[in-house]
Design goal:
Elements: H1 2-29, H2 34-39, H3 45-55, H4 61-73, H5 87-122, H6 127-141, H7 144-158, H8 174-208, H9 211-218, H10 223-234, H11 236-260, H12 266-275, H13 279-307, H14 309-315
């Protein structure tokens, strides 16, 4: 097992290096010069050249990449062109909003999808299965930002129960902070809950047709116990795979939802950096998203070994 984990970890590091090179190359080849954007079109050529030299833009792309990479490895993510502060601080400030938002969304998605998917499999082709399929199809089809707008209209404008946007900060207390994140978390969770419901239903149905489950049922074990004790634990691998992917989707998908609810998270930072051509911030945000996806895939691979003892036995 240690050898397998070491190989996966080495593959993770190599993938991160390749992704970082690709990100830097794409950002470096984008049209538009950050120095020109900062100074404007009326800047003199001498002033523009001086700023380009100060920012290191006069050096070859490969030289700039290795300088940026060594800085990242040392924890120096550079300074934002727009805000004039270290990028590491900007990302850390936004993560305290985006990560709790994504965690709340994944919890809501699991609470809705797992019981609904299991019950749909238990009552295959029945009314519960039909309702679960209808709900999952609708939630998948509806964009998260549109759900967010509907939630604002209903719970903020009409009923006045929840804030329409903004984030008071964790210093204001857990209650106000969670209230500010609840509606955007629901907006993010519903489309993912639809996907997870379909995957859970399919995985449980497949396991329910296995011989050991039919044997347990034939010996008189109640269907509910057979479902939760035997079928569901063995159907967890595809469910865990989707959960790992969904967490990264929720982090990345927060771009639109955070702008709808005016949340100062990583998604809003990425949107503003893109609109302001802040290449340094854009590079680090995209690298963070990429590293998150790769790391979550690594964690899911390890979770397979914990969930399924057959994989561990096969390795031995």
């Amino acid at each position: 097992m240690i050898a397998l984990i070491s190989r996966r970890l080495a593959g993770l590091i190599v993938t991160l290096l390749l992704v970082s090179a690709l990100i830097f190359a794409v950002m470096g080849l984008l049209p538009g010069d950050p120095a020109s954007i900062i100074l404007g079109t009326s800047a003199s050529p001498d002033t523009l050249a001086a700023l380009q030299k100060e920012m290191g833009l006069d050096q070859p792309l490969i030289v700039r990449y290795f300088g940026w990479l060594f800085g990242v490895l040392k924890g120096d993510f550079g300074r934002s062109y727009t805000y004039g502060v270290p990028v590491a601080g900007l990302i850390a400030e936004r993560l305290v909003v985006t990560v709790p938002l994504a965690l709340m969304a994944i919890v809501i998605s699991v609470v809705i999808a797992i019981p609904l998917g299991v019950q749909a499999a238990r009552h295959q082709n029945g009314p519960v299965d039909w309702i679960a399929g209808l709900v999952s199809h609708i939630s998948i089809a509806v964009p998260a930002f549109w759900v967010g707008l509907l939630l604002i209209i209903l719970f903020s404008t009409m009923l006045g129960w929840m804030p329409a946007g903004g984030f008071p900060g964790w210093s204001a207390g857990l209650g106000p902070a969670f209230r500010a994140l609840l509606l955007p978390a629901i907006a993010l969770a519903l489309p993912q809950a639809g996907v997870l419901t379909r995957v859970t239903r399919s995985a449980v149905l497949e396991v329910m047709n296995e011989d050991y489950v039919r044997t347990a049922l034939s010996k008189g074990l109640p269907q509910g116990r057979a479902l939760w004790q035997h079928a569901f634990p063995n159907a967890l691998i595809p469910v865990v795979t989707i959960l790992g992917l969904q967490f990264t989707f929720l982090i990345a998908g927060a771009v639109l939802v955070e702008n709808v609810f005016n949340l100062p998270g990583l998604g809003q930072l990425a949107y503003k950096a893109l609109s302001q051509r802040d290449v340094v911030v854009m590079q680090m945000v995209v690298l963070f998203f990429s590293a998150l996806v790769i790391t979550m895939n690594f964690i899911v691979d390890l979770a397979y070994l914990v969930i399924d003892p057959r994989l561990r036995a096969g390795m031995r």
